[in-house]
Design a protein that fits this description.
With about 180 residues, the protein is of the alpha+beta class. It has a single domain, classed as Cyclic phosphodiesterase (Cyclic Phosphodiesterase, Chain: A, Alpha-Beta Complex).
Length: about 180
């Protein structure tokens, strides 16, 4: 089964981000927006995991010991290629606390999965498929402000991702509380 590790978001944060997606819209670019119910902060993509490796992963993650903390939505940004926005995302602060959690997850899963080459603290909103008007689109992205909102990160999850023609369906397999 296809799995990843993520931080769940409270309903009000998801609503805020969903409204941001609507504000940006699709007038100047065709964007595959992340469904409100699927918004999360990714810590590590695991890929295909068989039952035995899943059992070992569950056990390894139970040893992650980090403290819960207050986080806040950051600024809107994007990953690009050749000056075109390809993935629209929102930052999350404090980055160092999320890096600490990510590092602990990597450490505990070290013998089971390949270490990520790089990790950027972000929350993906959508993937740009086609830009109709680059100048207008980039102007909208640069001028869109994220509503500052705090929330508590007190757990992380092992998630199964099932892909279908209707988009991904996520199922939480295990929740791990932070101290």
């Amino acid at each position: 089964m296809r799995c990843f590790i993520a931080i769940e978001l409270p309903a009000d944060i998801k609503e805020n981000l969903f409204n941001l997606e609507k504000e940006i819209g699709n007038d100047y670019a065709k964007i595959k927006w992340i469904a409100k119910k699927n918004l999360h902060i990714s810590l590590k993509f695991l890929g295909e995991v068989d039952e035995e490796k899943l059992k070992l992963t569950r056990e390894a993650l139970s040893y992650v010991k980090e403290k819960k903390f207050v986080a806040e939505l950051g600024e809107l940004s994007w990953f690009s290629s050749k000056d075109d926005a390809r993935v629209i995302w929102v930052g999350v602060k404090p980055e160092n606390k999320i890096f600490d959690l990510y590092g602990e997850v990597e450490l505990k899963l070290g013998s089971l999965f390949k270490k990520d080459e790089r990790f950027t603290v972000h929350l993906t909103l959508g993937r740009v498929k086609f830009i109709k008007n680059k100048e207008e689109f980039l102007s909208i992205l640069k001028n869109t402000k994220v509503k500052t909102q705090s929330f508590i990160i007190d757990n992380f999850c092992l998630v199964r991702s099932y892909l279908s023609k209707d988009g991904p369906t996520y199922t939480i397999l295990e929740k791990y509380a932070l101290e």
